[in-house]
Write a structure and sequence with these properties.
Elements: E1 3-9, E2 16-22, H1 23-32, E3 37-39, E4 46-48, H2 51-75
Antiparallel strand pairs: 1-2, 3-4
Helix pairs in contact: 1-2
Length: 85
């Protein structure tokens, strides 16, 4: 299982924190438009991800997917998700 780490700023204490998601689960939540709950590691405050935070998560998922595709190409592993050069 691959994990994506999302940097966030807590709405309550304003501290920087990191929330982790399984990549597959985050893709499902973003694709389905479901609410994504974030939790501060310092004060345990929870809140729903804003549209800006969701955009940041989508960008991280896309970057992660791109890195995986490049690694597969270099390793010579191809499937229906990848295209050979």
């Amino acid at each position: 299982m691959e994990t994506i780490f999302v940097p966030v700023i807590c709405n309550s204490c304003k501290r920087h924190s990191v929330v982790s998601f399984a990549r597959v689960e985050l893709k499902r939540l973003l694709g389905g438009g479901d609410s994504i709950e974030l939790r501060c590691a310092y004060d345990d405050h929870t809140w729903a991800a804003s549209s800006r935070e969701r955009d940041r998560m989508l960008k991280l998922v896309r970057e992660n997917d791109a890195v995986e595709r490049i690694a597969r190409r270099r390793a010579g592993i191809f499937n229906q998700d990848t295209v050979a050069f």
